[in-house]
C-alpha cells in the first residue's frame, strides 16, 4: 500500500508538470505578441503559433523589430521571450 501511495503522488506530480509544459508554448506566444511593438497592429496580428510549438513572425519587418529597431522593444522579442520561457521552466520544476 505504501508503494502505491508514493507512485500515485509521483504520477500526479508528473501529470502536473506535463500539463504545465503543454501550456508553455501558448504562454510564450502570448508573451511574444504582448511585447511586440504596436504601430498599426500588423506585427501582432501577423504573428502565429504553429503546431503549438513554433512562433512565426511572418511580416517583412520582423527581423528589424527583433533586432531592436523599435523603441517600444529595444531588446526585440525573441530574447525576452527566451528569458520568459527559462523563468517559467524554473517555476515548473520548483513546484
Protein described:
- This protein is mainly alpha-helical and 95 residues long.
- The chain is built from four helices and two strands.
- Strands 1-2 form a two-stranded antiparallel ribbon.
- The longest helix is centred in the N-terminal third of the chain and has 34 residues.
- The relative contact order is 0.15.
Write the layout of secondary structure elements.
Blueprint: H1 2-35, H2 42-45, E1 47-50, E2 54-57, H3 62-66, H4 78-94
Antiparallel strand pairs: 1-2
Could you name the key traits of this structure?
mainly alpha, 4 helices, two-stranded antiparallel sheet, 95 residues
Total E-strand runs: 2
Helix amount: 55-70%
The total count of helices amounts to 4
| General shape | elongated
What are the low-pLDDT stretches, counting only 5+ consecutive residues below 50? none
Distance between the termini: 25 Å
Largest sheet properties = 2 strands, antiparallel
Helix/strand-derived category reads mainly alpha
Beta content comes to 5-15%
Radius of gyration, whole Å = 18 Å
**Biggest β-sheet: strands ordered side by side in the sheet:** 1-2
Mean pLDDT over all positions: 90
N-to-C SSE series?
HHEEHH
Task: Please provide a brief summary of the model.
This protein has helices spanning 2-35, 42-45, 62-66, 78-94, and strands at 47-50, 54-57. The protein has 95 residues and is mainly alpha-helical.
Amino acid at each position: 500500500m505504501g508503494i502505491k501511495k508514493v507512485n500515485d503522488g509521483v504520477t500526479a506530480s508528473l501529470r502536473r508538470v506535463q500539463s504545465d509544459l503543454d501550456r508553455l508554448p501558448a504562454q510564450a506566444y502570448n508573451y511574444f505578441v504582448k511585447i511586440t511593438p504596436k504601430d498599426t497592429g500588423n506585427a501582432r496580428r501577423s504573428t502565429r503559433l504553429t503546431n503549438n510549438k513554433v512562433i512565426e513572425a511572418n511580416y517583412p519587418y520582423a527581423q528589424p523589430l527583433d533586432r531592436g529597431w523599435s523603441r517600444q522593444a529595444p531588446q526585440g522579442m525573441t530574447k525576452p521571450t527566451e528569458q520568459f520561457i527559462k523563468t517559467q521552466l524554473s517555476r515548473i520544476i520548483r513546484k
